[in-house]
Write a structure and sequence with these properties.
Layout lengths: L18 H21 L13 E2 L2 H15 L3 E8 L5 E8 L27 E7 L2 E8 L23 H12 L4 H11 L10 H15 L4 H15 L4 E6 L5 E7 L1 H10 L2 E4 L3 E2 L6 E8 L5 E9 L4 H14 L7 E4 L3 H10 L4 E4 L1 H11 L1 H4 L2 H14 L3 H15 L5 H8 L6 H4 L11 H13 L6 H25 L12 H9 L2 H12 L4 E8 L4 E7 L2 E10 L4 E4 L3 H5 L4 H9 L36 H20 L3 H24 L5 H10 L25 H6 L19 H7 L6 H8 L16 E3 L1 H4 L13 E3 L1 H4 L10 H14 L8 H8 L7
Parallel strand pairs: 8-12, 12-13
Antiparallel strand pairs: 1-5, 2-3, 3-4, 4-5, 6-7, 7-11, 8-10, 9-10, 10-11, 14-15, 15-16, 16-17, 18-19
Helix pairs in contact: 1-2, 1-23, 1-24, 3-4, 3-5, 8-9, 12-13, 18-19, 22-23
Length: about 850
């Protein structure tokens, strides 16, 4: 009796519950790598003989595998015999063509493996005593052809991913490189896929097993265990979660210690956006984003929300505030969400709430597109109202002119926008510090990075991994920017103290913006000057630009202010103030009151402490692996110079592998229990279930789009194939009740539309379509006359095909018959109400 093939030899998955077993298997894996490395090149002339002895099953198996690969056939483990104590006393390895397959079912399968078993008699039998394997019976004859030499690397039992390759695959996966590209890289490094030792499918299976292992025991539970472990390593790590009555995760927030440190330095302005869904549970992703001293994004934390209600936002903002030491931001940017606005008023009462101008522009295109797309309206009025009005009076007068010229005084959307003018117009926020931000696109751009790296089916654990990798990348970029800002940039304006001072204190990115302002002082000139005994008042004008700016300057304390409010909003002096300071011969540096520390090279000095440093060393195993990889690359570089250096390298590497294997075999497994206790300590005590996987009707996993954007991206619909059994005319009564349901045609197209009708007959087959009874039962009551086939009402099908006049008479003829078969209330099914209720429009 033949045993079913046990498949390829794989290393077990890493799980915390089997830590002791894992250590044992890892040592076996080292033995495996050693025996495979030593014997694979030596087996072509080797033959097994009765009486041969091997120290372990592992050695016997790999010796035989190396032998059969050299011959050109595969092997699988077969029967074993045990004594009364359960100890194995006999073991048999057979050719992979041994025995015959037995079909378990006559039904046709979607995929069937090619049949290779042909009753091959070849096998080898071992007698086992105290782990020692002795060959007692051996048959080498085969009844099939051997595999050609150029295909032997594909034999299943010989395919194996080494620990080194596994480490490379895992590291590439962390960097966002897919399995196919990683396999191509390894194949190129090995001089071809034939030298790699495994195939692409093995690579993909390994990566999938690693991903599955991440969420073993529950996605959310593993994520909380990870956070709990991070908190044990660094007490400054913070996370909080909410669960529903069933114990399922609903809301989650987390941030590491360096994010807290970044918030201390740059938390005056926060951008929060919730327009992306980047996981398989359809949870809303909401990163808290700020701007660092290099004018680049920095992450303060991230959240998952199950809904966008005021209760969820209040919980999130309270948790965020608590995690940041109850330090509220000065300004927060969000989209036009009423629930979010209510939560901000509740939790951040002293924070300035600004609306994202990008979202306002998108909503304007949706609600007043007939006006917004006209340059004479958008440029002259709408853009001016948003960006160019300098005072409330100017804003009101511009709005009145817009109403008079375009007749917009009765537009409800514009009226609601006017009520929110304090949150989006420059006329009402010029003195609010915003870092120069006008929209939440900084948050959206960061979120888009996660969107590219984490697919819509990503688990939470995988998404957090991508988040952490992106966080590392952003911090590495900041370090590079710090390095680039060490020196002073080249100055084209020589011998100017203010400019030299700015170059010495500001980072390169901020100095560039300051420099642009400084160059504009030549376009300004002082038209008048007054002095009240304490403060000078200058009036500055520009020849090519209408308007004037009033600057007040105190020569005693060097305080200066300009009505353009550039310093108040962005944090560096404007061209008008710089013109006055530059004209004063006693001033050669920027007054200290007008240099914000957050824009300087030393923005983080004075905040750093030992607790702020994240423990970035990582697991000791990973550190050791990285260190050895660096040494190994150096050995490979030196050893690949010629044949002699390669011989020296191989000799010493083989000796090193043998020494390490011997050491691992001699070390007893005595710390398994203590490791289990350590792992238990790193587990979160609270048990949390995963959210229900769902996707809302019509909901995209990308940024939430306005209806106008969706219309532009509509493509021609493809009609799936479905056999037509019988045509039955439709009922106008059915059409009446389903007229509104036609809006959901895109959701039911796959179920209702036949596609195996050839092109010339499409127009003739449109008035009635078959609907499978299994689907119809959910929506309509079944009659005896309609059991075999159901039709799709033409009102719904209008979204896919035009009607032909030839079929109108056909419908009218059978119309009365259908009405007689159905009662007047037969089609008022609750499922229709549910579907119609699910339709929702975008908020203005």
């Amino acid at each position: 009796m033949q045993k079913k093939s046990r498949g390829t030899f794989l290393f077990p998955l890493r799980t915390k519950e089997r830590e002791a077993e894992l250590q044992t298997k890892e040592r076996e894996a080292l033995d495996t790598a050693h025996f495979t490395h030593v014997t694979r090149d030596l087996e072509k002339d080797f033959e097994f003989m009765i009486g041969m002895i091997f120290a372990s099953e592992l050695e016997a198996y790999h010796k035989y595998v190396a032998y059969v690969i050299g011959k050109g056939f595969g092997v699988r483990k077969s029967k074993t015999r045990k004594n009364d104590n359960g100890e194995i006393t006999r073991r048999i390895f057979v050719c992979n063509c041994a025995g015959y397959s037995v079909n378990s079912s006559d039904q046709e399968k979607k995929y069937e493996r090619p049949e290779v078993r042909c009753g091959c008699p070849a096998f080898i039998k071992f007698k086992v005593e105290n782990g020692v394997h002795e060959v007692v019976e051996y048959v080498s004859e085969h009844n099939h052809e051997f595999i050609p030499e150029h295909q032997r690397q594909l034999i299943r039992c010989g395919r194996m991913i080494s620990n080194t390759c596994k480490g490379v695959l895992v590291d590439m996966a962390k960097a966002g490189i897919g399995g196919t590209m990683a396999y191509k890289f390894l194949a190129n490094e090995a001089g071809g896929s034939q030298n790699l030792g495994f195939i692409l499918r093995d690579c993909q299976n390994f990566l999938q097993s690693e991903r599955s292992n991440l969420i073993e025991g529950g996605d959310c539970q593993n994520l909380l265990n990870h956070f709990h472990s991070m908190q044990i390593q660094n007490p400054m790590f913070f996370y909080a979660q909410q669960v529903d009555q069933e114990g399922r995760l609903t809301n989650l927030f987390w941030r590491d210690s360096l994010s807290k440190f970044d918030y201390d330095c740059f938390g005056d302005v926060v951008v929060f956006d919730t327009t992306y869904r980047t996981n398989k549970y359809n949870l809303i992703c909401g990163p808290f984003v700020g701007v660092n001293h290099h004018w680049k994004n920095t992450l303060f934390g991230c959240a998952f929300l199950s809904d966008e209600t005021a209760i969820s936002f209040i919980w999130l903002f309270e948790v965020f505030l608590k995690s940041m030491g109850n330090k509220a931001p000065k300004t927060i940017f969000t989209d036009q969400d009423q629930a979010m606005a209510k939560a901000i008023r509740t939790v951040f009462p002293n924070t300035q709430h600004r609306l994202c101008t990008w979202h306002i522009g998108k909503n304007a295109n949706q609600n007043i597109g007939h006006l917004y797309n006209k340059p004479e309206f958008k440029d002259k009025y709408f853009s001016k109202l948003m960006y160019r009005c300098r005072s409330e009076d100017e804003f009101d007068s511009t709005w009145r002119k817009m109403d008079e010229e375009w007749g917009t005084e009765n537009n409800s959307w514009l009226q609601r926008l006017y009520d929110l003018r304090y949150k989006w117009s420059s006329a009402f926020g010029c003195d609010i510090f915003t870092c120069g931000i006008t929209s939440s696109q900084r948050s959206e751009s960061t979120n888009n990075v996660f969107q590219k790296m984490a697919a819509k089916t990503s688990s939470l654990v995988l998404f957090v991994h991508y988040y952490e990798e992106q966080l590392k990348h952003m911090r590495e970029t900041e370090g590079q920017d710090d390095y680039s800002s060490r020196g002073q940039p080249t100055l084209h304006v020589m011998h100017n103290g203010i400019l030299k001072h700015a170059a010495s204190v500001y980072t390169r990115a901020i100095f560039k913006r300051f420099y642009d302002e400084f160059l504009q002082i030549v376009s300004q000139h002082i038209s008048s000057t007054t002095f009240d005994g304490l403060v000078y008042e200058y009036t500055l004008t520009c020849k090519e630009i209408q308007g004037e700016h009033i600057i007040k300057f105190n020569p005693v304390d060097f305080s200066i202010s300009c009505e353009c409010k550039l310093f108040e909003s962005k944090g560096w002096l404007c061209r008008h103030a710089l013109h006055v300071l530059n004209a004063n011969p006693s001033i050669s540096v920027i007054p200290s009151a007008y240099i914000l520390k957050r824009w300087t090279k030393g923005a983080k000095q004075g905040y750093m402490n030992d607790e702020s440093h994240e423990m970035s060393a990582g697991p000791s195993t990973s550190n050791r692996f990285s260190t050895l990889m660096q040494n190994a690359f150096e050995v490979m570089s030196l050893g690949a110079q010629d044949e002699n250096t390669m011989r020296i390298a191989k000799k010493n590497l083989n000796a090193t592998v043998a020494e390490i294997s011997s050491y691992n075999s001699s070390v007893a497994i005595t710390d398994g229990a203590s490791d289990d206790n350590d792992n238990d300590a790193s587990l979160c005590e609270m048990l949390v279930l995963d959210p229900i996987q769902k996707k809302g009707k019509g909901t995209s996993y990308g940024r939430l789009k306005a209806s106008s954007e969706k219309k532009r991206k509509k493509t021609k619909k493809i009609i799936p194939s479905m056999p037509i059994e019988k045509l039955i005319p439709h009922s106008t009564h059915m059409e009446t009740h389903l007229s509104d349901y036609s809006r959901n045609a895109n959701q039911i197209q796959n179920a209702f539309c036949p596609g195996n009708i050839s092109g010339p007959f499409h127009n003739q087959m449109q008035p009635s379509y078959i609907m499978p009874p299994g689907i119809m039962n959910e929506f309509f009551p079944i009659t005896n006359q309609m059991q075999q086939s159901y039709i799709m009402p033409p009102r719904i099908m209008n979204g896919y095909f035009p009607f032909t006049s030839q079929m109108v008479e056909y419908h009218n003829r059978f119309h009365q018959n259908i009405l007689n078969q159905e009662s007047s209330n037969s089609f008022q099914h609750p499922k229709l109400n549910e579907l119609n209720d699910s339709e929702g429009g975008d908020n203005a």
